[in-house]
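Quick one - first record:
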Amino acid sequence: MGDAFCSDCKKHTEVVFDHSAGDTVCSECGLVLESHSIDETSEWRTFANESGDNDPVRVGGPTNPLLTDGGLSTVIAKPNGASGEFLSSSLGRWQNRGSNPDRGLIMAFKTIATMSERLGLVATIKDRANEIYKKVEDQKSSRGRNQDALLAACLYIACRQEDKPRTVKEICSVANGATKKEIGRAKEYIVKHLGLEAGQSVEMGTIHAGDFMRRFCSNLGMSNHTVKAATEAVKTSEQFDIRRSPISIAAAVIYIITQLSDDKKLLRDISLATGVAEGTIRNSYKDLYPHVSKIIPAWYANKEDLKNLCSP
C-alpha cells in the first residue's frame, strides 16, 4: 500500500495494511506502525451550486438490504434559505415519528456501528453482526432479553466468524453496561436458536492463541523483538496438548517471553492487558513450563536463559 518510516528498521520500508484488524504493519520486521485505523471507503462527491442555491445532488446513503426498503425512505423537508441547509417540516416530523417499520433495526445497527468503531473493527465485521442480529430479530423470540447484551453477542460472533476474534472482556468494554455473563448467555441463545432455524450448528470459527498475540503485545508496549518471539512461541505451542483456552495460552506465553527479556512485565499488568485472571495465567504457565525448551525460539533464549525461569 506504500511505504513509511519504521522506528525499528530505522528506515522507510514497505508497509502492509491489515484490513481486518485495522493495522498498518512494516513488511520487513512486522512492527505495527499504526493500529485501529478507520477503514475509509470512497464516498459520493457532491458539488454545490455557485449561485448559492441548494446542492442539486440527488444521491443519498448506500442501500441496506437488511431493511424493508433498502434504507431509502423518503424524508420530507423544506429548504432553509440559500445556504443549502434543510429543516424538517411539521409533516416530515410526523412522518418520521415511529412510522418506519425498521426503526428498531436502524437503532440496533447504529449501536453495533458505535461498538465496532470503538473496538477499531472494519465494516465487514460490523455488517456480519448486523446480519446476525437481523436473523435473531426475524424470529421474534428475543423480546424481553437484554438488548445491549444481545447486540454485543452478535458482534462477538461476527468477530469469530470473520477470523478476527475479540475476547468477551473486550466486547464487554463497549457493551453499554452489559456484563460478561449476560453477553455469554446471549451468545448461547443466538447460537442455539439460529442453529435450530438452519437445522445445523452455527459456524463460530476456530480461535487460535496467535489471533490475540499482536494486540495483547501492543497493549503492553512490548518491543518488536519480543513480539516476534512471542508470536513464534505461541504458534509452536499449538503442537502440544495444552488444554487451556487460546487466550490463556497467549497470556502465559507473553509472561514467559517477558521474563526472559530485560523488559519484564508484572503478572498484574499482563492480566490487565489480556483480560485473563492472574491465577489462570499461573496455571497455564505451569502447563507450558515442561515444553519451554521447544516452544521458545532458540534465537531468543538459550538453555542457560531458560534455567532462569521460575519453576511453577
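second record:
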Amino acid sequence: MKRSVFKAAASTCIVAMTMAGFSGPSSAMRRGNEPVRATSPDDRRAEALHEEGARALQAGQFDAAREAMEQAVALSPRDTGYRQLLADIYLKSGRFTSARTTYADVLELDPSNDRAALSVALIQIAQGNPRAAVTRLDDIAGRAPDADVGLAYALAGEHERSIRLLERAARRPGATARIRQNLALAYAMSGDWRRAQAIAAQDLSPAEVPVRMVQWAAFARPGSGPVQVAGILGVTPAEDPGQPVRLALSAENAPAFAEAAVPETVVAGAGAAPEPAPAPVQVAAAEPAEAPAFWVPTAQAYQAPAEVPVEAGQAPAEQPAPAPEVQVQYASAARTLTAPEPTLIRAAATTRAPATVFHRERPHVAIRDGQAPVVVQLGAFSSERNAERAWLQVSSRYDIARAPLTATITVNGRQFHRVSVSGFASAGDAQRLCGRIRERGGACFVRGTAGDASIRWAARYANPRQRDV
C-alpha cells in the first residue's frame, strides 16, 4: 500500500522541482564558451569527473556518481554546479544530512538558488524541523513555483498558507493540472475531503477519484511529514556519516585563520594566554566540517536571534585581541545561514497581505449575460435523479437563478450527467460566478461548452430571471 500511495503522491507533487534531471551546467562547464575552457589541470580533471558522475547518476550508479563528484568538488570547491549535482546525488541516495549540508554550500555560493533552498526546506521537514523549513519557504515564496512551495507548506503542516497560495495559483489563467492536484492534496492533508475530491475530479476520471482519495487518506496522516517527504522524493533514508570534512567550504579558510591567530595570541597573552590560544584555531577548523554543527547557527538564529552573535564569538571570549578575527572568519563561513534570517522574518511578516486578497470582500461586480461559449460546471453525477437532487441543493444554497444545463459523458463504460449553467457575456463573468460560489464553500470550475443543453428535468427549472450569488 505504501508504495502505491507514494507513487500517487509523487505524480502530483514536487519531484519535478527537486529531482528532475541533473543540476544545470557547472561554472566550469559554462566556461566552455570562452576561448580558454580550463585554466589549470585541476579544472580539466574536475570537468572530466563531473561528466563521469553525471553519466553514473543517469545509469543509477549512485556510489560511482558520488565518488566522482566528491573528487570534482575537492578539485574545484567553489563551483556551484559541481556542489549542486553532488547534493542531488546525496539526496537520491537517502543521505539527508549530507544533502542538506551540500545544498547549504550551494546557497552560500549562490544565495539566489531557489531550487537548492526548496531542497533544504524539504530535508528539514524530513528531519523533523518544519519550523525552520517554513522560514526558508517564506523566503523563496514568490520566486519559486507556487505549486512546489504551496505543497511544501502543506508537508510542513502550514495547511492554511498552503491552500491560500495554491488557490491563488489555480485561479490564474493557464493553471496546470499539477497545481490543481497539489491543491486537492493540500485540502486532503488539512482534512477537507469534500473539497479535495471536488478539485481532484477536475483532472481525473470519475473512476479514478475514489482510488486517489483512498491513497491520499493513507498519505495524509498527521505527524508523518518525514515519511511523506521521503515518499514524494522516492528515496529511502540511509545511514549518513555526513559530508566529508575535506569538502567543507570553510576548510579553505582554515590555514589562513590558523596563521593569523597564532601571532595575535603571542602578542596579546603573557603567561595565561598560551593555553586558551589554540582553542579558536581548533574550533574554527573543525566546527563547520561536521554537518550537524554546520547547521546549528541556522536553527538558533531562527528560534532566538539575539543569541547568535554570542555564539559566533564564544570561543575567543577570554582573548580580546584575536576575537574580531575569529568573528570575521566564522561569519564568512556561516553568512548565508545567519544573514538571511532577518529577511526571512520580514518575508513572513508580509505573507498576510495575500490573505486579504484571497478573502477579499468587495462590492459584487455584476455578472453580465451573454452568449459566450463557456459554462460553470457544478458537478457530475451517476444518474439524472442524483443530478436533479444536487441541482436543487446547490441552486438553493448559493442562490443561483440561472437555468441548469446537462450533458452526458461516458467514462470507462459508465455514464455521468454533468450539471452546469451558462449565459455569460465572457469567460471572466463565468469565473466571477464560480469564484463567488467557492468563497461560500462550494466547488465549481469554468470550461468550454461541450454539448450542454437544457433537456428533460433541467427544462423544468428554466428561468429568464438572472440573479446570481
